[in-house]
Specification:
Strand 5 and strand 6 form a beta hairpin. Helices cover 40% and strands 22% of the residues. With 193 residues, it is α+β, with helices and mostly antiparallel strands. The strands form two sheets. Strands 1-6-5-4-3 form a five-stranded antiparallel β-sheet, covered by helices on one side. It has four helices and seven strands.
Length: 193
């Protein structure tokens, strides 16, 4: 049996051990907060762009040919394509027809992506094909987005969009959300393509 002083010493010792755990947890949380702040600041200063390029190569993954498109085996891409335009690739979204000429649709896509901070890295005026590098908001992970405008007639056009991540196995739905946002930003459609 413990004497009263021994009980008091044991209780004090137990409080100190608990206080030490609390201080370690607080230090760990502060450290994580500091790391998160550094990453956020580095992203906003675009420092991460250079780091990713040195580690993983150029962010632009290159041009795609929609008619021969092969989707990735990893779940970090998304595709919007009208029937018959993307070979046998599995399509996530069938884009609608828009009540505007192909040139006007192309300008709207370019304006929207520029407003989102995307960089136009490739363009072919013959095929109305543009390629952009977009970056995620917080970590600035680079994604390559190919957009090809498909004229339907003089006053209507549709498009194919392929968005794919440079880094990581899984994209947490970022590429599909990006495609949906582009289509929504283009305004009302007239009919399903």
């Amino acid at each position: 049996m413990l004497e009263p002083n021994e009980k008091r010493n044991e209780a004090t010792s137990e409080k100190r051990r608990g206080g030490g755990r609390t201080r370690r947890l607080a230090r760990m949380l502060i450290g994580l907060f500091v790391i998160a702040a550094i990453v956020l600041i580095a992203g906003q200063l675009r420092i991460l762009d250079g780091v990713y390029e040195r580690l993983f190569g150029p962010p632009d993954l290159g041009n795609v040919a929609f008619e021969r498109l092969m989707r990735r085996s990893t779940p970090n891409d998304a595709l919007a394509c009208p029937p018959g335009e993307c070979g046998s690739a599995e399509v996530d979204i069938r884009p609608p027809a828009f009540p505007m000429a192909a040139g006007a649709l192309r300008r709207r896509v370019r304006a929207y992506l520029a407003a989102q901070g995307a960089d136009l890295v490739g363009s072919d005026d013959t095929s109305l094909h543009d390629r952009f590098v977009c970056r995620t908001t917080l970590m600035r992970f680079p994604d390559t987005v190919d957009v090809e405008i498909l004229p339907l007639d003089a006053e209507h056009a549709t498009l194919a969009i392929y968005s794919r991540s440079q880094l990581g196995y899984y994209d947490f739905g970022v590429n599909l959300r990006r495609i949906r946002a582009i289509l929504e930003a283009l305004g009302p459609a007239v009919a399903s393509a």
